[in-house]
Design goal:
Layout lengths: L19 H19 L1 H4 L25
Length: 68
């Protein structure tokens, strides 16, 4: 799997009952919190639009699997 240097690809298995947008937002929050906690000074130069945000608001989701 290839990706740009400013993208993080994930392959996640979820049941259809889960809301993808909530999963993505929780992952972004979790990652941001832990990166900022561990590397507060180093990460500040990577803030998105000079705000205390590491991720852009959007995301891309693609699904694969068997259809019955």
């Amino acid at each position: 799997m290839e990706s740009d240097k400013d993208h993080i690809p994930y392959m996640i298995e979820l049941k259809p009952k889960h809301q993808f947008c909530k999963i993505v937002n929780n992952m972004k929050s979790f990652i941001t919190y832990h990166i900022c906690k561990e590397l507060p000074n180093e990460i500040s130069k990577y803030y998105y639009n000079n705000k205390h945000v590491l991720f852009a608001g959007g995301y891309f989701i693609s699904s694969i699997g068997n259809v019955s």
